[in-house]
Write a structure and sequence with these properties.
With 340 residues, this protein is of the alpha/beta class. Helices cover 29% and strands 20% of the residues. The protein has one domain (12-339): 3-Layer(aba) Sandwich (UDP-N-acetylmuramoyl-L-alanine:D-glutamate ligase). It contains ten helices and 14 strands. The strands form two sheets. It has a ten-stranded mixed β-sheet with strand order 5-4-1-8-9-10-11-12-13-14, with helices on both faces. Strands 3-2-6-7 form a four-stranded mixed β-sheet. A hairpin with a 4-residue loop joins β12 and β13. It is globular, with a radius of gyration of 19 Å. Residues 1-5 have low confidence and may be disordered.
Amino acid sequence: MVAEEVRTVPDAVLVGRLQREYILPAATPARLDGLGGNLAYAAAAFASWGGQAGLVSRVSADFPMDRLTRLEALGFLLDGVHAVTETLDSRYFKAYGEGNKAYFDNPITHFAERQLPFPPELFGYQPRRKYCSKTDYESGSFRITDMPRKFLEAKVAHICPIDFISHKILPSVLKAGMIQTLTMRACSCYMDPIFWEDIRGLITDLKAFMMTDVQALKLFQGRSVDLWEIAEHLAGYGPEAVLVQTGEGTTHLYDRMSQKRWVLPAYRAHVSDPTGMLDAFDGGFLAGFRQSNEPLEAALYGNISAAIAGEGSGPYFLLECLPGLKEMRMQVLRQQVIAA
């Protein structure tokens, strides 16, 4: 009998945060101590399109690794998920109010208002500070030794929001291997005028750079309020595609190679839990770009993934999609794309 070949090179590399989520949606049941983090949502979206990725993340020593077994069973490689000895809080709390407005503080108050028992695991919880250091590593910051050598043989990769140090190091690490397509989503902490001189170096090696309209306007404060002007300016630093997303889910895509502008509306779906929608977009975008090498087609994949993520709760909801549903929705959304 011939032994089954052990797969060692993933289709893609995904780097980001894995967390233990405590989510209180506005109108659906709470999801307590579930798998979360931007990496989990991006990975699940990538898996939903048939991809198999290598995951890279730093987690706390008590992180429940068994929650990744479903991805592992789908062919994902977990060699890059490292439990660290430093203090690292993997807990993440978010509550949603009217209009899906998000609240990150005072979890005791939100549980009390909903007459829900307070999870003892959340005692002492403090939201992660939204500050980026230009020089200091945090316990969750990427280290060069975190990247398995065999992952560098993959052709595509995506960097989820981590911190400034990680985003400064990772592109050069990934491009030193076989990575040809590298995408990255901005961190809010460095989308700030004080990082203006640093942005070019962060994004010059990217194929696509994703951000929200709030992040874009904050970075360009005093310079521009035109999203297209902002996207074109950032594309001039190197990325072939710059994507800016509004709070309503509309995606503004600037394609530097064709010098075209596209507006992709959000796919109309009922949003039960907005957590992870942008990260699901990124996983879908990477899957679409890997297959088509076209930013517009990839953005369609991303918008569909984001919509599906919002209809449920938790990253694994993306894997429950009915066969053919994503493709059907893409055909509908494709007719709604506007050339700006």
